[in-house]
């Protein structure tokens, strides 16, 4: 009887295995419905997303998309400057996550596109009819016709933010010119208030200030120098360097600013310890959340030779914007691509609900009143007739790193303006 039982059990097991193998005889690639069902029920590893931005809505939006798609998500945040090294190492070692973000600029995009590590997203965007949802130029087609990223930030530019309460306490108005800026620095310092919070350790915040100081000297200086029509040792570059040196000597920045990150500098401003923050418009969400109606905004003052109304700014109206990419080698490629596109649109929804500018059409409406400082910025940004691109984003990565190292050295006060521009000319002319 035991023998008969074992024989029956073996036959049942064989029959079960045979039935289980039958679906494998069908080509799932020829049956999309079957493939989609398989993807939705198969046990897979969590999707991994790498992010370097600190905006308050980014992680909740990612988690909401993951919940909608019924997938597990590993959300990994890295300090913005450390992220640059991390992404380069991951590209070189072919160890990218399923979904990752990247900075704007030619050199940052070339790192991804030249290595051919990003998957085209055309199929997901086209299949779902989403291309028309994205506003003009927010989806970038490369020369091969493919779209390799979706946006997660609208166009950006430099902003000067200030604490209204502190400014009123000092009896000042936001500076409109160089003399008023120096007076503000002196008055705030004498009152024990940090005049300008700056994360010098990360290099780029000081770089942006210098870029705009040059812009205020001559709107065409950088573009002409980049083309070789003039030299980086010419007057606009020297005068702007002199102004950085004056700011450092006037103690415009917090003590130890060269050893502090941009995030640490922002916290000084958000917590009311610093009067002013010169940064990018991407800081508005956290600045509004921290200061509310006490947040003030003004354009970068007329610090140089150009006089009259301010019609230009440093910023990003770029063919290489901040983007979300998908690893071409992801083991969950289709799911990762769908997540990336959904995530981009979810972030856009959150921007609109927060009363911020967007990059795609959405039925969402602002859920809060638009902050007065941000509303003024949007008005100014619309009226800027010229946006000077961030220099770093227009040059090769190796040149950009050398330039930013040099720019950081300018803020140490150990270089004269003439030494600085001569060294910059040498860096910018390297083949």
From TrEMBL:
SUPFAM superfamilies: Periplasmic binding protein-like II. InterPro entries: Bact_solute-bd_prot1, SBP. Keywords: Signal. Residues 1-28 form the signal peptide. This is Extracellular solute-binding protein.
């Amino acid at each position: 009887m035991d023998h008969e039982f074992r024989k029956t059990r073996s036959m049942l097991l064989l029959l079960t295995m045979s039935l289980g193998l039958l679906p494998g005889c069908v080509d799932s690639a020829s049956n999309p419905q079957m493939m989609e069902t398989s993807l939705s029920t198969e046990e897979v590893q969590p999707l991994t997303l790498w992010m370097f931005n600190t905006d308050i809505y980014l992680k909740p939006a990612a988690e909401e998309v993951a919940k909608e798609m019924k997938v597990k998500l590993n959300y990994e945040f890295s300090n913005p400057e450390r992220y640059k090294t991390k992404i380069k190492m991951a590209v070189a070692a072919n160890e990218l996550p399923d979904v990752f973000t990247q900075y704007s600029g030619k050199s940052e995009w070339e790192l991804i596109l030249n290595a051919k590590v990003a998957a085209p997203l055309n199929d997901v965007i086209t299949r779902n009819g989403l291309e028309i949802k994205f506003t003009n130029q927010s989806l970038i087609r490369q020369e091969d016709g493919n779209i390799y990223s979706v946006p997660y930030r609208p166009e950006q530019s430099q902003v000067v933010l200030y604490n209204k309460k502190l400014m009123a306490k000092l009896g000042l108005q936001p500076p409109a010119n160089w003399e008023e800026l120096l007076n503000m620095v002196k008055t705030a310092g004498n009152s024990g208030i940090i005049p300008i919070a700056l994360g010098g350790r990360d290099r780029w915040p000081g770089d942006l200030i210098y870029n705009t100081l040059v812009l205020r000297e001559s709107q065409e200086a950088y573009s002409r120098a980049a083309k070789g029509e003039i030299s980086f040792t010419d007057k606009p570059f020297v005068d702007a360097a002199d102004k950085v040196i004056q700011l450092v000597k006037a103690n415009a920045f917090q003590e130890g600013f060269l050893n502090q990150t941009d995030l640490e500098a922002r916290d000084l401003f958000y917590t009311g310890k610093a009067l002013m923050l010169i940064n990018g418009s991407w800081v508005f969400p956290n600045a509004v959340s921290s200061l509310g109606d006490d947040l003030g905004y003004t354009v970068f003052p007329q610090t140089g030779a150009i006089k009259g109304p301010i019609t230009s700014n440093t910023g990003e109206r770029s063919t290489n914007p901040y983007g979300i990419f998908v690893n071409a080698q992801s083991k969950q490629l289709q799911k990762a691509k769908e997540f990336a596109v959904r995530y981009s649109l979810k972030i856009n929804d959150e921007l609109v609900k927060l009363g911020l500018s967007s990059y795609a059409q959405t039925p969402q409406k602002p859920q809060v009143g638009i902050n007065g400082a941000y509303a003024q910025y949007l008005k100014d940004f619309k009226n800027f007739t010229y946006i000077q691109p961030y220099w770093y984003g227009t040059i090769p990565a190796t040149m950009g790193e050398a330039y930013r190292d040099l720019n950081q050295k300018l803020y140490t006060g150990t270089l004269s303006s003439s030494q600085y521009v001569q060294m910059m000319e040498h860096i910018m002319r390297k083949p």
